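Reviewer 2 asked us to include a model.

Predict the structure of this chain.
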Amino acid sequence: MTYLPVRAPGGRLFIGDAHACQGDGEVCGTAVEYASETTIRVDLIKSWALDWPRLERQDFIMTIGSARPLEDATRIAYRDLVLWMEAEYGFDRWDAYMMLSQCGRVRLGNFVDPNYTVGAGISKKYLAPEGK
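Predicted model (structure tokens):
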């Protein structure tokens, strides 16, 4: 699932180009792009305010930060991930930071636009309560 912040009443969703594959960073400004027909389902979650995009799979969660310099994009992504772990998974803030220092993962999504885009994530196996 992809969770996106809505910052304006009546906000619109635009879908970009489809990628068959893309290396980390999209360093030359393009990926292997192809024509596609895409079907999406959009649900509005009114009670959940987000500052930055979030991604969730069955086994992994990730937050996205976008800024310049690269360090700021990384800080944004990790800070939002810490807040998510605190709010939804019961972590103490400092325990979440320590867990991410040991088990966190970073993906570089974009080096070619004015801002850099970074995803910070963690496997859900580290988020489950003990014994589950």
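The first strand starts at residue 2 and ends at 3. The longest helix spans residues 70-89. We have added this to the supplementary material.
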